[in-house]
Amino acid sequence: MSGWWVVVDPRTPAERDASEEKMAHLVASWEAGVRSMWFLTRDLVKAGKATQLSFNGYPNRFTVAAGDLVPLIIDGPPTWKDEHGQEHNGRVTIHRDQLAALPASHVLTVELWDVT
User: How far apart, in whole angstroms, are the C-alpha atoms of residue 77 and residue 88?
Assistant: First the structure.
């Protein structure tokens, strides 16, 4: 699969970097196709609602307010089409209760890890 492993963390990038338990606090994660993340990498960044902090695939890192991201992923992240035109995501984990409890102004860290 060409694409990303996406993780959404309620901690700041600095808190995430300092933690020895990088995966312990995730509120969402999933496997995504390259184009299925355009809602973040193009749309939210272009609209000034997300900030890209790194761009090298190991990881690509963004910050975005919960109020801008949660409505887009709480019922499942946007899907991607495989080579046969079927839409899907892989290994989706969404912690709806934790996402719903976040204040709209809470800043999330989103990482896209290249799995190509």
Answer: 10
- Name the nearest CA neighbour of 59 among 114, 14, 9: 114
Alpha carbon dihedral 32, 37, 40, 41, in 10-degree steps, equals: 120
Global confidence as pTM:
0.90
Share in percent of the chain as helix, strand, coil (round to 5) = 30, 35, 35
Phi-psi region of 76 (alpha: psi -120 to 50; beta: other; left: phi over 0): left
Three-state secondary structure call for residue 67: helix
pLDDT band of residue 80 (cuts 50, 70, 90) is: low
Q: Side chain identity at 82, as an amino acid letter? A: D
Neighbours of 10 (CB within 10 A): 20
Closest CA to 72 of 41, 51, 113, 34: 41
Instruction: Give residue-wise pLDDT tens across range 15-32.
Output: 999 999 988 899 999 998
